[in-house]
Write a structure and sequence with these properties.
It comes from Huiozyma naganishii (strain ATCC MYA-139 / BCRC 22969 / CBS 8797 / KCTC 17520 / NBRC 10181 / NCYC 3082 / Yp74L-3) (Yeast). This is Prokaryotic-type class I peptide chain release factors domain-containing protein. One of its GO terms (biological process) is mitochondrial translational termination. This protein has helices at residues 18-35, 38-41, 60-64, 84-91, 119-137, 146-177; strands at residues 2-3, 9-10, 13-15, 48-52, 68-73, 102-103, 108-113. The chain is built from 6 helices and 7 strands, in the order βββααβαβαββαα. The strands form 2 sheets. A 4-stranded antiparallel beta sheet has the order 4-5-7-6, with helices on one face. The protein folds into 2 domains: 2-137, Double Stranded RNA Binding Domain (2-Layer Sandwich), CATH 3.30.160.20; 145-174. The radius of gyration is 28 Å and the shape is rod-shaped.
């Protein structure tokens, strides 16, 4: 990825460092998660909905009307609508909690809802469930404040100074025991 900057010039462009690129990806994924809601998720054209007959009590209505909604995102690992870091966390590739709606075998996200007697309410509920699960599963570390980094750098310098002083004292002690002829 090429960006305009003053480091490592190649003509008027330069290659961005891997640490900066990782931070850029993390920031964009964090922002994507922050603005994610059921309305933005429904804009994904790859989401498939299927409506079936619901189970449980409901009388004649349940026998006649297909109200249970099943939301599916097929071939999830290749879906570029979701940021790469979000996809990896949902699939469990980053070592975190795996999304309960992700199926490795089918490589898809599948969510069902038959909580209400309304088709549209169940469809909206599927989207809400998926958004809630994505927000729970995905976690990105925040930037460490400058004060905290300075504090720990100071502690490391003090620890190193103390270690070197103890080495000097130990060396002097050994040198003083050495006999000269």
């Amino acid at each position: 990825m090429l960006f305009q900057c003053g480091m490592l010039p190649i003509g008027h462009r330069c290659l961005i460092g891997t640490r900066q690129l990782a931070r850029l990806h993390t920031d964009s994924a964090r922002e994507w998660i922050r603005v994610l809601n059921s309305a933005t998720l429904s804009q994904n054209g790859r989401i498939k909905y299927r409506f079936d007959r619901s189970s449980g009590p409901g009388g004649q209505n349940i026998n006649k009307v297909n109200t249970k909604c099943t939301l599916t995102v097929p071939q999830f690992s290749a879906d570029s609508w979701f940021p790469t870091l979000v996809r990896e966390q949902i699939m469990g590739n980053s070592g975190g909690r795996i999304c309960r709606y992700y199926s490795r075998l089918g490589d898809s996200l599948t969510v069902q809802s038959d909580e209400t007697r309304s088709r549209s309410s169940n469809q909206e509920r599927c989207l809400e469930k998926l958004v809630d699960e994505i927000k729970q599963v995905c976690w990105f570390p925040t930037e460490t404040p400058v004060e905290t980094r300075q504090k720990w750098a100071k502690i490391a310098r003090q620890r190193n100074r103390r270690r070197l002083q103890e080495k000097r004292i130990h060396s002097d002690k050994k040198r003083s025991r050495k006999s000269t002829y």
